[in-house]
Amino acid sequence: MKFQRINALLIRHLYLMKRSFPRIMDIFFWPVMELLLWGFLSVYIQKLKIANLNIVTVLLGAIILWSLLQSAQQSISVAFLEEVWEKNLLNIFVTPLRIIEFLFSTLFLGIIKIVLVSAVLGILAALFYAFNIFQFGFSLIPFIIVLLIFGWAIGLFTMAVILRFGTSAQVLAFGFIFLIQPFSAVFYPVSALPAGVRHVSYLLPSTYVFEGMRAVMAGGLFPYHELVLASAVAGVYLVLVLFFFYKMFGWVKQRGLLMKLD
Amino acid sequence: MPDKNKTIIAVNNLRKEFSGVAAVDGVSFNVYEGEICGLLGPNGAGKTTTIQMILDLITPTSGEIQVFGLPMKRHREEILGKMNFSSPYVSLPGNLKVSENLKTFARLYGVKDVNGKIAELVDFFEIRELLPKMTSSLSTGQLTRLNLTKALLNDPKLLLLDEPTSSLDPDIADRTRKMLLKIRAERGVTMLYTSHNMAEVEEICDRVIFINHGEVKDEGTAEALIKKYGKEDLNDVFLHIARQNN
Ligand SMILES: Nc1ncnc2c1ncn2[C@@H]1O[C@H](COP(=O)(O)OP(=O)(O)OP(=O)(O)O)[C@@H](O)[C@H]1O
Ligand SMILES: [Mg+2]
C-alpha cells in the first residue's frame, strides 16, 4: 500500500471542500442544528426535574457522537459518489491505485470530518450549555474510533450497493444511517426498547457504543464489556462488507460497467 | 521506429462475453515497441472492450494479455504505472481546476517532481494558461489536450488511445495528430490507437489491425492492405472488410 496514492485522493477531495461553501456548510449544518434543537430541549427537560440524572449531559453526548458517526459515514460514501458522478472511476483505476488504497483514502476523509465536526460541536456545546466533552477524559475516544470503523463499514456497504445498482441507489448513502438510528439506543437505553426489538439492537455496534457512553458519563468503572463488544461487532461487519465490496467490484469488471456506472 | 523484436502488448485468444454474447471472440495480436498501431473496425466491433481489458477495467472471459512481457493478473501495479490511457469519452472531474486534476493524477502515478512534470507538459501542449481554470469550462479541443497531458504525466512507455480525435475540428484534430507523432518521436512511446477516420489512420499508424464481430479480420501496413485488396485507400479497405460477412 502506498500512502502517496491515498494522499492524492485525499487532497483531491479537500480541493473540493476548500472551494465550495455549500460543501462546508453541509459538514456542519445538520450536526449544529441537531445540537441546538436537542440541546435546548434537554435543558428544558432538565428544568422540569423529572429525573435525577443529568439529561443535558447524556443527550448532548448522544447528539455529538451520533453526529460523528453520521458525518463520517456520509463523507465516506460521498467520496465514492463523487467519482461516480464525475465519471472518474475509470481514470482512477487505470492508475496503479489499488482498491484497498482507494478505500483507505475514504477512511482518512472520514477521520478529517470527525475531527472537524467534533471541534465545532465541542465549542458550541461549551458555549451554549457549558458542556465540556473533555470532562470524560479519553474514555470516549475508543468509542469514537469504533463509530468511525462502523461508519466506514456502512459507507463501504453503500458503495458496494451503488456499484451493483448504480446511482439510483445513492439515496442509501444519505438515508441508510437513519434506518439503524432507532435501534442503536442513541438517546435512550436498550432497556427502553420492546424486548423483541432489543435483539436487533444487539446486532449493532452503535448500541454498545451508546450504552458505553452512558456508562462513562455515569462515572464508575470503564465499560470494557461494551467496548469489546462494540469493537468485535464492528470488526465483523467491516470484514463482511469488505468482502461484499470486492465481490461487487469484480462483478462490475465482469460486466464492463466501470465506465458506464450511472 | 518500430522494433519487431520487442513485444509491448501480446494478446492471445482473448474472449469477452456479455450475457452469453461474444463482444470479443478469440482475438490475438501483438503491438511492438515504438509503433503506432491502429485498432480499426466498425461500431460495436469490440475495440473499446479490447482496450479496457488491456487496462484491466474489464475482466476477460478467457485468453491472456501480457504487457511489457508481464501477465496483467499478477503485475497490475507495475504495468499500469508504465502505461496510460486517454479518450474524449472519459473526462477528468469538471469540478476541479485543471491544475488540481493534473496534480491529483501526478500523485496517483507517483511522479517525483509533480510541479516540474506538470510545467514541462503544459508547455508541450501549450495549455499553461488553462491551469487555473475549472475543468468543466474547457472546450472540447482544450479537454483533449488536457487528457493527453494527464496521459503523459507518468512518462508512459505505452499509450492506449480510444478515438482521441473524435469530435475535434479538422484543425485541432490535425494538431493532435502532430502532437502524437511528436510524442512518439521524442519519447519513443508505443501507442494502440482506435479511430474511425481512415485518412488519419493512414497518416499516423505504422500498422493496423482490423477487427469485426470480435474477430481479427486482417492486419498489416495501410499500404500493404490497400494493395492486397486492390483498393484506392484505407477507407475502401475498411468498407470491404466491414461488409464482408454481413
Ligand atoms: N458493458 C457491456 N455490457 C454489454 N454489452 C457490451 C458492454 N460493452 C460493450 N458491449 C457490447 O460489445 C460489443 C463491442 O462493443 P465495443 O464498445 O467494444 O465496440 P467498439 O468497437 O468500441 O465500437 P465503437 O466504434 O462504436 O466505439 C457491442 O456489441 C456492445 O454493445
Ligand atoms: Mg469504442
State the gist of this model.
The complex is a heterodimer of chains A (262) and B (246). Chain A has 262 residues and is mainly alpha-helical.
Helices, strands, pairings?
The complex is a heterodimer of chains A (262) and B (246).
Chain A: H1 3-19, H2 21-48, H3 55-85, H4 89-93, H5 99-129, H6 141-165, H7 171-180, H8 195-201, H9 205-218, H10 224-255
Helix pairs in contact in A: 1-5, 2-3, 2-5, 3-5, 3-6, 3-9, 5-6, 6-7, 6-9, 6-10, 9-10
Chain B: E1 3-18, E2 21-33, E3 36-40, H1 47-54, E4 62-67, E5 70-71, H2 72-81, E6 83-86, H3 98-108, H4 114-124, H5 140-152, E7 158-162, H6 170-187, E8 190-194, H7 198-204, E9 207-212, E10 215-220, H8 222-228, H9 234-243
Parallel strand pairs in B: 3-8, 3-9, 6-7, 7-8
Antiparallel strand pairs in B: 1-2, 1-4, 4-5, 9-10
Helix pairs in contact in B: 3-4
The complex binds adenosine-5'-triphosphate and magnesium ion.
Q: Figure out the total of helices of chain B.
A: 9
Biggest sheet architecture of chain B: 6 strands, mixed
In DSSP terms (H or I, runs of 4 or more residues), the helix count of chain A works out at 10
Named CATH architecture of the domain at 1-82 and 158-167 and 190-246 in chain B: 3-Layer(aba) Sandwich
Shape of chain A: globular
**How much helical structure, as a percent, in the residues of chain A?**
over 70%
Characterize the biggest β-sheet of chain A.
Answer: none
Low confidence ranges of chain A? none
Write a structural description.
The complex is a heterodimer of chains A (262) and B (246). Chain A has helices spanning 3-19, 21-48, 55-85, 89-93, 99-129, 141-165, 171-180, 195-201, 205-218, 224-255. Chain A has 262 residues and is mostly helical. Chain A has one domain. In chain A, helix 3 (55-85) packs antiparallel against helix 5, helix 6 (141-165) packs across helix 7 and helix 6 (141-165) runs antiparallel to helix 9 (205-218). Chain A is globular, with a radius of gyration of 19 Å. In chain A, 41% of the residues are buried. In chain B, 39% of the residues lie in helices and 28% in strands. Chain B is built from nine helices and ten strands. Chain B has a domain at 1-82 and 158-167 and 190-246: P-loop containing nucleotide triphosphate hydrolases (Rossmann fold, 3-Layer(aba) Sandwich), CATH 3.40.50.300. In chain B, helix 6 links the parallel strand 7 (158-162) and strand 8 (190-194). By secondary structure, chain B is of the alpha/beta class. In chain B, the strands form two sheets. A six-stranded mixed β-sheet of chain B has the order 6-7-8-3-9-10, with helices on both faces. In chain B, strands 2-1-4-5 form a four-stranded antiparallel β-sheet. The model of chain B has no long low-confidence stretch (mean pLDDT 94). Chain B is globular and about 50 Å long. Chain A binds chain B through residues 2, 4-5, 7-9, 11-12, 15-16, 82-83, 86-88, 90-98, 250, 253-256, 258-259, and chain B through 16, 18, 49, 52, 55-59, 76-78, 80-81, 84-85, 89-97, 100, 103-105, 107-110, 150. Adenosine-5'-triphosphate (ATP) sits between chains B (18, 23, 41, 43-49) and A (255-257, 260).
